[in-house]
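Input.
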Amino acid sequence: MFLPVTGSHIAVAIEQDLRTDLDFSKCNYEMADFLRKLPDLALFNNFRTLMKTIWKAWMPKQCLSVYDQLVAGARYLDMRATKLDGQLHGEHGLYSRPLKAYLRDIRRFVEEHALEVVILHFQVSSVGREFQVCRGSSVPIWEERSPQPQVI
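Output.
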C-alpha cells in the first residue's frame, strides 16, 4: 500500500533567497574550490560573479516561499542545510536564508492548520559531499504552547 504525499524538492532553494554575494556553499565544494584557486585578478573576479549568477539562474527549484509551498499543498519538504558562520542556512549550491526563518514559516502554517501533517526531511552537510540525514532528533521549532503539534 502506498500513501501519496505532495512535496517540494529542495524546498529552501527559492530563487529570491539564494545569495550570490557569498561564496558557493560547502555542498558545492568542487565549484567553490575551483573558483577559490583562480588568481585574484579582475578577469577572474568577474568570472566568479558570472558563475554565481549562472548557478542562481539554473539551480533554483522553487518560486514560492516555504509557507506558500505549504499553502499550495506540499506536505513533504526536502530541507537541505549547511553551516555558515556557525548557523544553519538553507542551500542548493548557493546559501539561502538561515534555516530558522524557514522553520518559522512552517510553524506559522502548522499553527494556522492544526490538523495538517507536515513531513520535514533534513539533509545537513558539514563537509563537502558528506550528507547526513538527521535521525532520532527533533528540531525544536515550536515554543511551549497548548495544544502543541506533535513532532514525530
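Helices lie at 29-37, 42-58, 66-71, 99-112.
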